[in-house]
Design a protein that fits this description.
The protein is mainly alpha-helical. The chain contains 12 helices and no strands. The mean pLDDT is 90.
């Protein structure tokens, strides 16, 4: 429990009870990262409902959801996204890339990555809402923070840490295959929770519920493979992963997951 509280305080700006810092406990708690996503998901879900009812505007609701997510995380993962793009697309040596990623200043590639990220995220959520429905928008908002954090856990178990020390080293050193399995099962359970609750309300949709659960597990498996491949790519580029690449993967995973969700809903009429 202390490890999870440490993880929640480390990865969010939420108020949590103060506990003594322990690097090993923090690192071992990484397998519960999707649960941190679940906490964020609930708050984003509530934000969506409130602003849909107050503003009667899908666009404004989505903007406020995106703003709320930045507030909740302090933009820590967005910083990693910008730093990673600055470093990787500098096309320098491994050591120089790492130096650029550590630099607190943001470059052109970092700025472009953030602009494209917010544009893509906004239009993906908007398209889901307008072409599929508000219920699917709510599910997307609820689910994408959880799925993205599973990808970070997979990444930690897929590659070495690129530096001798750093913010993400504790996570990489204490995350293994068992951690990934635990995180995968936790993510599947959290994502299927609203679907199972829905089935209790209407038993006639039971077959559709089983199909939805199966599709979600397939999506999670695919996202895990992508996270693994991303980590291998970072290993070739800079000799491993860093806290910045973990943040970049988390944000990019959200975009990919929303795109997959949209394609499935539009093309399979589910």
């Amino acid at each position: 429990m202390k490890g999870f509280i440490l993880l929640l305080s480390f990865m969010t700006r939420l108020y949590v009870p103060k506990v003594e810092y322990n690097e090993e406990k923090l690192g071992k708690a990484m397998k519960y990262f999707p649960a941190v996503g679940f906490v964020i998901s609930i708050l984003l879900y509530i934000t969506t409902i409130i602003f849909l009812r107050v503003t009667y505007s899908i666009n404004l609701a989505i903007v406020f959801v995106m703003l709320m997510e930045v507030v909740l995380t302090g933009g820590i993962h967005l910083d990693g996204l910008a730093d990673t793009f600055d470093g990787i697309f500098s096309y320098r040596s491994k050591q120089k890339m790492l130096e650029i990623m550590k630099d607190s200043r943001i470059g052109t590639n970092g700025v472009l990555s953030l602009i494209l990220y917010f544009i893509l995220k906004f239009f993906l959520l908007q398209t889901i809402a307008t072409n599929i429905g508000i219920e699917m928008l709510l599910f997307a908002v609820f689910s994408y923070p959880i799925v993205a954090r599973l990808c970070s856990v997979v990444s930690c178990a897929s590659a070495p840490y690129a530096r001798t020390s750093g913010m993400g080293k504790a996570f990489v050193d204490n995350t293994n295959k068992v951690s990934v399995i635990t995180s995968f099962m936790l993510t599947a359970m959290l994502l299927n929770l609203p679907i199972i609750i829905m089935s209790f309300r209407n038993m006639d949709i039971l077959n559709s519920v089983f199909l939805a659960i199966f599709i979600i597990i397939l999506i999670l498996a695919f996202m895990s493979i992508v996270a693994n491949l991303f980590s291998k790519l970072m290993t070739r580029k800079i000799g491993g992963i860093t806290g910045d690449t973990l943040g970049a993967l988390l944000e990019l995973s959200q975009i990919l997951y929303l795109l997959i969700l949209l394609i499935i809903m539009l093309n399979f009429n589910y």
